[in-house]
Amino acid sequence: MSTEFFEKYKYKLKSQEELVEIIGAFPREKKVIICHGVFDVVHPGHVRHLAYAKTKADILVVTLTQDKHIKKGIYRPHIPEGLRALNLAAFEMVDYVLIDENATPLNILKEIQPDFFAKGFEYASSGLPRATQAEADVVDSYGGQMIFTPGDVVYSSSKFLNLSLPQLQLEKLLLLMQLNDISFDNLRVTILKLSDYHVHVVGDTIVDTYTRTTFIGGQTKTPTFSVLYQGEDNYIGGAGIVAQHLRAAGAKVTFSTILGNDKLKDFVIDGLIKSGVETSLIIDQTRPTSHKNAIISGGYRLLKLDTLDNTPISEEILQKLTNSIQQTPADAVVFSDFRHGIFNRSSVKTLTKAIPAGVFRVADSQVASRWGNITEFKKFDLITPNEREARFALANQDSGVGRLASFLLEDCDCNNLILKLGDKGIFCVAQNEELKTPAFSIDSFANYIVDAVGAGDALLAYSTLTMLATGSLVMAGIIGSMAAACECEIDGNIPIRTQNILAKIDEVEKMIGYKTS
Predict the structure, then answer these.
(1) Which CATH number fits domain 3-164: 3.40.50.12370, 3.40.50.620, 1.10.630.10, 3.30.457.10?
(2) Distance set, CA 82 to CA 165, 284, 439 (Å)
(3) Model pTM?
């Protein structure tokens, strides 16, 4: 899709109010017919349906189900509503396209009152389903007529999608940027503004060790793997890498955390000092520095050895953290929760209350395998859980990601949500329904996966700074996703720098076709 495609057909995209003004009240001189559906993939059955409908009226209006109301699968629709609307607008036979903000077309039918409402033959071949009967009742109430298109060709979008999922990463991105008046140069300018802010990170530090081995074989008498030790690499992880990502972006960073009195403490302190992170460290004599050692062979994680203490911090330490939050000037406070002692149901409330008024509040809770819950972080400006954590928190394994995100946004009463979907990218939703795109998805920008560990931390850091710089969830989602992709493409949990993001922006822009060198 190009800018020219968007500009050429967007004139057909109308709001309900605009459409009512254009076609006039029922009964009208020029007959109007409406076809309604999801149209996730426009296929031959749809084309026959639309073509037949156009023969019955002067004006063909196609109304689309909004993304958040689609229940055909957890990750449906694959094509976002804006692009689905443009695809239909490109057909000569289609006069206008309307994205329906309601779950059913009943309100559209009541307000627009088309002369005809067209349904596929399959909806009438064995008696009207309840939903179709409700639509027929509305049409009958004002004197309109239901029309069922011939059933000689019947296709299902779901069957097509089950055969092959559409690859529309760049088209979706370009449309999202166009709808929100964002250019690639806007992204670059934003990256250069990220150093203007001071962020206070509060959370659990983890030392991640990669113990690298070569697989020798298994024992003959016991089910035991035998590996040859090759070496190991240590990385600052958990909330510590979030702080380092922020600092690598140029921001001023203060990091409040708890460490044990051990050798790993020295490793963490030395790494934070070298990266330029200002620290507010608390040494807890009763617990170790959290340590996670992954035994790796041939790129596979054979085993992970954890050394940690998840018991709640003492009241004395909680008070120290509270004082640190209250006394540290910052544009944003980020709670990075791995549920290793700092955050629990009681302490979350205390620490949240300590955040000064007017400070941007962010929370990320990576606790799906332990007793933690992202919904404990109420009224935050941005939360960034992954899909598993969201389903764990809401006890919801069935809803599509759009509805799941909406449920979580409402439960947490937060302003902005970025739901991480792993290799499927992210789904974002904002409380502000006046936005051009209050809900949208962005596919992953990773070209290849070397090590996905830490991608969410990179997204958290860069999304936070972008929200501070622009206030735009769309910009935050794009730049955060690019940071996550950069992290996936390197081995180990290493801070992502602005030059990495700028290179990714250049790469994506060139793929779309705007840059020739």
Answers:
(1) 3.40.50.620
(2) 18, 52, 11
(3) 0.78
